[in-house]
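Q: Got a minute? One more chain.
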Amino acid sequence: MSKSIIGKIGSVNTFEMLYTKNVFTHIDNYYINSIAGNQIYKRMMAIESHIPQYLSDYSKNNELLIDNIGSGSGREMINILKKHTSLISQVKIRNIDPDPEAIAISRYLADCNKLSNCFEHIPDKFENVENRNVDIILLIGMLCPLSISLSKKIISKLYSFLKIGGLLIYSTALNKMCYDDPFLDFLMRYHGWNMSYKTVDESILIATSSGFELINVFFDEPYHHHSIIICKKIQKN
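A: Always. Here it is, folded:
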């Protein structure tokens, strides 16, 4: 935490520390073993458990276009493809992140796992990237520090980047995260990493108020610090 957060707030290194359990200081060790820190790792596990079924359903007989916005290292999708190899020939994923270090790690992980043909790595902001009318948009962790009103604006803009019937999959940080681990919340805020906690209903409304249809909600087990919401783009009247 001291190495990653102080240097670059919420950078890819912060999350890689949680995912790989490689630590450098006692504070780092506290971070990865704290309740809230461990639940971020559990969020990745939840995504890897729930998302493959939707990918399989949408990829039948078709190429599956996925935009992973704010992808970081892209570990979730790499791990999913490693476990569900039947998807490899069908998915085309753009990892989009303005942090060049995140893109370098995502490219390295894809190369190491012989998945390079599945990925395009784009070191840029999403608004600068060409709209290719995708099947699925992933937005994991990006809304956690943002207000509800700003989150709604972002989700509303993403509507035009999806095909009709396409899926938007996003996550939010829930109030329970702060209640269960107030000390980690203090440490994060002390270093300038401020969460905007939401309820489950508020998290769902972010998308449904923009014309998306709710499909499913799942959580990081067992504490439910994060909601992962799956919505479908439907034709507006």
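A: DSSP finds ten helices and seven strands in the chain.
Q: Perfect, thanks.
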